[in-house]
Amino acid sequence: MSGNEGRLLDATTLRAWCATALDALGRAREEIDSINVYPVADGDTGTNLYLTSEAAFRAVEAVFEAYGDDASPAAWPGLDGVARAMAHGALVGARGNSGTILAQLLRGAAQVLVEAPGEAVDGVVLAAALRRAAEAAYEAVAHPVEGTVLTVASAAAHACPSEEADCRVVARAAYDAARDALKRTPGQLAALGRAGVVDAGGRGFVAVLAALVAALGGEPFAGGPVARPVRWQPRHPETSRGEPGGAEDGARAGGVGDADDAAFGEDVARGGGVARGDDEASRDVARRGSGDVACRDTEEWDGSGPGYEVIYLLDAEDEAVARLRARLDALGESLVVVGGDGLWHVHVHVDDAGAAVEAGIEAGRPHRVRITHFASDAARPAPASGERVPRAIVAVVPGEGLAELYAEAGAATVPARPGELPGSGELAEAVRRAHAHEVVLLPNDAALHHTAAAAARDARHLGVRVAVIPTRSAVQGVAALAVHEAERRFDEDVVAMTSAAGATRYAELAVAEHRSWTSVGICQAGDVLGLIDGDVVVIGQNVAAIARTVLDRMLAAGGEMVTLVLGEDCPETLADDLERHVRAHHLAVDTVVYEGGRDAALLLVGVE
Length: 608
Known about the structure:
Layout: E1 9-10, H1 11-34, H2 45-67, H3 79-93, H4 96-115, E2 120-121, H5 123-140, H6 149-159, H7 167-184, H8 190-195, H9 200-215, H10 247-251, H11 261-270, H12 280-287, E3 308-315, H13 318-331, E4 332-340, E5 343-350, H14 353-363, E6 365-373, H15 374-379, E7 389-397, H16 400-408, E8 411-415, H17 424-434, E9 436-442, H18 449-460, E10 465-468, H19 474-482, H20 490-502, E11 505-511, E12 516-518, E13 521-523, E14 528-532, E15 535-540, H21 543-555, E16 561-567, H22 574-585, E17 590-597, E18 603-607
Helix pairs in contact: 1-2, 1-3, 1-9, 2-3, 2-4, 2-17, 3-4, 4-5, 5-6, 5-7, 6-7, 6-9, 6-12, 7-9, 13-14, 17-18, 19-20, 21-22
């Protein structure tokens, strides 16, 4: 708290909030996933909130790391810089509908914190930040719906005292109001009432506010079970508001992750405040929507809907984004567009994924495009409890072609897109979904080794035995997979795979994005770089010439097998050219070629 006892919020307190929120969402992730029924019952709200929070946390940590661990507090980053990093990290790392809205909530709060003078803000400014967060979230959603995280955020904002108060008092008031609003969500959204659960996104935001209270020196955030599904008894208009919904059901409602868990469950058991639209905050939600339609009718919502979720970052001007909103709104539903200052995060559910991406192309430059087919996810059977497979391989893979290759070899894959490495939560979730007693994790990138180790620690808490093989390239992962034998003892299999990966040298061809220094001189934007084991060894313009130089240097130390993985932008004749070169200049060396596809590096080379 930097010695201010919760009166003020400064850069270090904001950092603590991001760290505590990440921990809170990590503890609650599985249970929030389990109550995810709206807008699509795909069971990933907790995971998406965690990954979005992790992206914000990483961005904030990067700001502090840039100042060095030995810097004096006087030299630490200011509140404005940390707030900007938090908002930007959440924006570019937002996952799913819930994560996109959380990113906008953080961005809205950051807008106020950045503009505030001084290195710390008081409760008045924090209250304004929370109110702006709720407003920004409403602005981002095409058709706000009552009974969602928007309702919870609005209730929190309206509860903040307008007069002068300590930040801790403001945070606690917001948290208490959000928690009360969350209890009422089953009475506001038919899908939640039928399932007997509170809103998953709102539950996650309550955890974020609980973390804010803790970061300001309030009651410490306690981990443990939260948000357990509960059969809530729906109320009808003629039913008395005070009629209890069943003590046993309410006792299973789960708490909010702090010392008031039991009281929260008891309140749900008494049915307090669940009558539809019974408070001013709820009525305010119905009034404040974007456009003419403030709250869509959800009485007949049955879980059906568009088949695809489309998400992408977009470089575009404000006017183009306004046109994009209108077009995507006509194409699908669950439209959320967040961001500003030229960078936007777009989320929509549609039947025509191509049309949604084309709309982005017309508006600006879409990148980091992610398309999820809901039907495929729904059709994938969840493994039955107690039916774990003996052993599984989980690998981070760049490129669709490599993903297919790994899948054919029996590995579960986690995509790695340019500039977007998966977080530890995503890797831990992939390990969990593998549903195996033993898992071998292949990070396939040196930058992911610490992330993979963190994911392994998380998975071990679930009783899974996990080994991380420190592969630094996908071609090393291919070599490891080639010697994998599930029938061997786990330790022996891990040793064999590690040995095969370690015996494989790797190289990559990439295109420089900007002018920079390298170990062999200065490169200009657009230059082709040849890297061996992560170090630049040659710079040029001709892809084939650079590739031949890299191959010759690697094979000078010997080798029996060359693996080539071609990216989507590789010249069509490159594979044939390199195969002829190897046959002509390196006797008794075999070559195997794979298509890396979209999102793969320009060229990956492995030599065994």
